Amino acid sequence: xxxxxxxxKFIGLLAATFVxxxxxxxxxxxxxFVLSMAAILLARVRVRTLxxxxxxxxxxxxxxxFTGYRFAADGSMPVRADIFLVGGSRLWNxxxxxxxxLAYAGLGYAFALTTDRIRMVRSFQRQFHVPQVxxxxxxxxxxxxxxxxxxxxxxxxxxxxxxIRVLPFSPALLAPLLVKSVRWSExxxxxxxxxxxxxxxxxxxxxxxxxxxxxxxFLVVCCLALPAAAIWL
Length: 233
Known about the structure:
The protein has helices at 6-22, 26-42, 47-70, 81-84, 90-112, 117-127, 132-161, 171-194, 213-232. By secondary structure, the protein is mainly α.
C-alpha cells in the first residue's frame, strides 16, 4: 500500500467506499474492514497505534449496532422495511450499521496510515493538477505543526513553573500559540518569496511521481472489478 501512487490510492478507495454504500450486506463491509486491516499491517504500521485508533471506531460501531437493533424498520415502526432498504431482522440491521462504521474507518485508515503526506501533496499536484499555491501551503503548514506542538509544551511548562494550572484548551495557552503561528507563517511566506517560490511559475520535479503498472492494477480492481462483482452478486 505504501508504494501505490497516493492519487490512484485515493480514487480506488473512494470507489470502494461508494460500492459499499450501495450494498446492504454486512459481509461485504466486514470483508472490506479485514482487507484494510491486513493492508495496514502489511505496511508495517505499529499494532499499538492501530489499536488506539480503532478504539473510538469500535465504540462507535457498538453504538450503531444497538441503534440499528433497537430502531429497525419492522413492525414496531409505522414504516415498511423495503422503503429504507434494510433487512427485516433487527440483528441484521444492527450488524449492517456497525459493519459500515468499521468498513469506512478501515478504508480511511488504510489511506491515512500508509500514505506519506509529502508524496500525497506531490501526487495530487501532478495527477489532479492541484495549484502550486495550495500545494506549497499544505507543505508549509505541515512544516509548522511540529513547532506549534513544541511551543504548546513550552507554554504549558511555563504555567506549571509559576504554579498556575490551566486546561489543555485554555485561551491562556492558545492565545500565545496563535500569535506565534501568525508570525511563523509571515516569516515563512517572506522566505519562500525571497527564494523565488511562486504559484504561477512552471517548475519541473526532481523526482516526479508517475502512475505505474501496479497503480493501474489497483484502479482496475477497485473501480471496475469490485463494482462489477457487486452488480453480479
